[in-house]
Design goal:
Length: about 325
Amino acid sequence: MSQVSENPFKMSDTNKRYYTYDYFLKTIFGEKCAKITLDCGFTCPNIDGTRSYGGCIYCSGGSASRNTKGLSSILEQYENGKSAVLKKWQVKKFIPYLQAYTNSYTSTENFINILEQVSKFDGACMIDIATRADCLENEKLEYLNSLSKRIPIILELGLQTSNDKTAELINRAHTFAEFTDCFERVRRLAPSVKIGVHIINGLPSESYSDMMKTAEDVADLKPDILKIHLLHVIKGTKLAQMYETGFYTPLTLEQYVRITCDQIEIMPSNMVIERVTGDGERDSLLAPLWSLKKVAVINEIDKELFKRCSYQGIFSKK
């Protein structure tokens, strides 16, 4: 018997004991799709002084893809990204991903203009928008609801933690109450838009209980998609200063695997878990260096769930 045939988690056709993004896309489109990251030239309200200055303490530049640097238009970025993908995979469907910084932090008119362009990109089958909960006015949500009738939309909301003290420490500059207000407005005004939520394990001052409380709060909200991130210490950030002066210690691999598996176990089984870790760029990463081996980290999570005879949702409140 193989790990695949013995897998008790029903929403999987591999050894994965959680609802992966690949499996989710296959159920919708019947084939593999590829994400193309885009930088639309936005900033964030906790960078420019609207809510705060300097951005989150771990931010090194909005997670912009190396494929977007030096390119003049989002169409050029998209075509460049497609070319890179097609060198590795033969895919026909693509998901433009507005990733860098806060992608609704602009006027409604500009927001609509950009998304109208993106929705018409050749091969685009879905649009993914990363943003913050304090940058989504009702008129933008009403537009997204209309657009979602033409092309599927994923709206990713960065929570990171439900602990307001931690949020203040990392300069997130919005509260969990603001986040839940936005979440509820998306559900009400744009019900066909799928909501993704980001959380980060290993934030400064957070205990195991704090990280599990964030996971429990997310499980109660029941978003469509969850991304679980590992906190990376990137050169040149405020977090790097904390790390270099001994005020911050990253999680070990063993700690991260345990916490992440515990979080997976309490998530509803129908929630897509798009990400269970991440890897910083080798040239800019200070710690934890074990995160550079992303596939190895994912494999450790798979092995731990198998060892436990466990899977996503086994301890969910349903």
